[in-house]
């Protein structure tokens, strides 16, 4: 694990990298390096929603050799919690929690409970580790940030293309405004 950059907390940590830097690609690289050492290793990736699930399935097909693709399972957080509710548990070598900031709610924190997912190593992935409500503090000891690449570093080092961010004014209806406030104030309770 040390050679793979997962040496903190005995192989438990978080990559806090700006969006577009390559968290998914880097994780697939970790999978490949581990599989070169032991092709019996298996991995579970949990994602907050279907968009991320499709992204991961595509990345696995693109970056993991065909003979190893069955070693990587992708589950939505909803599917994992349904399995837990049925009394099932999972076991893997490396458990990856994509978009870690989406798991700061009490119900989704169950995903990290070792009674449900038994794992040797665990890797959180996020561009936004710290939460305005300080909910990240519940995970600081379990999945601390082991590497951080912020927007400034990502652009300076060429990890992402230079871009221009546009803030566009949009008029919302009263109903849209209420829904926006609800989503803005509790993002993880909004189902996508």
Key terms:
192 residues; alpha/beta; disordered N terminus
Sequence stretches where pLDDT stays below 50 over 5 or more residues: 1-6, 187-192
Helix content: 25-40%
Strand composition percent: 15-25%
Strand order of the largest sheet: 3-2-4-5-1-6
Number of strands: 6
Total count of helical runs of at least 4 residues: 6
The topology string of helices and strands comes to: EHEHEHEHEEHH
Largest sheet: 6 strands, parallel
First-residue to last-residue Cα separation: 34 Å
Overall geometry:
globular
Characterise the protein shown here.
It is a single chain. The chain is of the alpha/beta class. 31% of the residues lie in helices and 21% in strands. The chain contains six helices and six strands. The chain has helices spanning 23-37, 50-63, 77-85, 106-109, 151-156, 174-185; strands at residues 12-17, 43-47, 72-76, 90-98, 117-126, 145-149. Strands 3-2-4-5-1-6 form a six-stranded parallel β-sheet. Strand 4, helix 4 and strand 5 (117-126) form a beta-alpha-beta unit. Helix 1 (23-37) packs across helix 2. It is globular, with a radius of gyration of 18 Å.
